[in-house]
Design the sequence.
């Protein structure tokens, strides 16, 4: 007798009749996949809850993917969202992330990377794990997760988390860019890398998570 299915549920909103079933079948190795083929039905399914993560295409009939995600965020639905799309310019990525997506993967993609990103988005943390204060928010460096009162949690990349942790450990200190570059990034990176990752953090979490001190550098903000 087969036992209960303990795989977490995943909502896939993809209208490509060839790609959608293939992605659903492959992801079925680790997830219970609900496949929906238009934006409005995707919004209804996401509102119903019960999914550990959402994978949403950008170009959808009925309701565009960024509009779908933005509607969920306005309703305080905090389920992690991976946007999966052929629209891969910087402007497209910014629009997706600003709309409320937690991550953005461009087609064509490798399934190994898709699985890795989904694992990162759904990574849990132990309540006893040490955290760093960000005002009303908290950074859990081991899990690379920021928990906020307004968006539940944000999953950071390794470098994003390391940069934010460096700032948060000394909240009253202003770091110049050269200092942050040497502390966080591999040898050979340019000063502009620090500015790029500060921009990533502001987009993912809040524009005030890192403050610019004119002529001196950066310090952590209090959210």
Sequence:
């Amino acid at each position: 007798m087969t036992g209960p299915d303990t795989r977490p549920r995943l909502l896939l909103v993809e209208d490509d009749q060839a790609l959608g079933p293939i992605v659903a079948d492959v992801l079925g190795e680790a997830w219970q996949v609900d496949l929906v083929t238009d934006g409005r039905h995707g919004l209804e399914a996401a509102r119903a809850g019960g999914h550990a993560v959402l994978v949403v295409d950008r170009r959808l009939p009925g309701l565009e993917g960024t509009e779908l995600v933005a509607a969920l965020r306005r309703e305080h639905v905090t389920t992690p969202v991976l946007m999966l799309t052929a629209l891969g310019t910087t402007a497209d990525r910014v629009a997706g992330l600003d709309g409320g997506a937690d991550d953005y993967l461009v087609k064509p993609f490798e399934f190994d990377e898709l699985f890795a990103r989904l694992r990162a988005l759904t990574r849990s943390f132990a309540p006893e794990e040490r955290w760093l204060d960000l005002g009303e928010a908290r950074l859990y460096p081991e899990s690379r997760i920021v928990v906020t009162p307004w968006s539940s949690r944000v999953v950071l990349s390794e470098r994003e988390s390391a940069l934010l942790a460096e700032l948060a450990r000394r909240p009253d200190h202003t770091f110049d860019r050269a200092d942050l570059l040497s502390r966080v990034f591999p040898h050979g990176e340019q000063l502009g890398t620090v500015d790029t990752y500060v921009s990533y953090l502001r987009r993912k979490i809040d524009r005030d998570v890192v403050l610019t001190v004119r002529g001196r550098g950066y310090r952590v903000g209090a959210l």
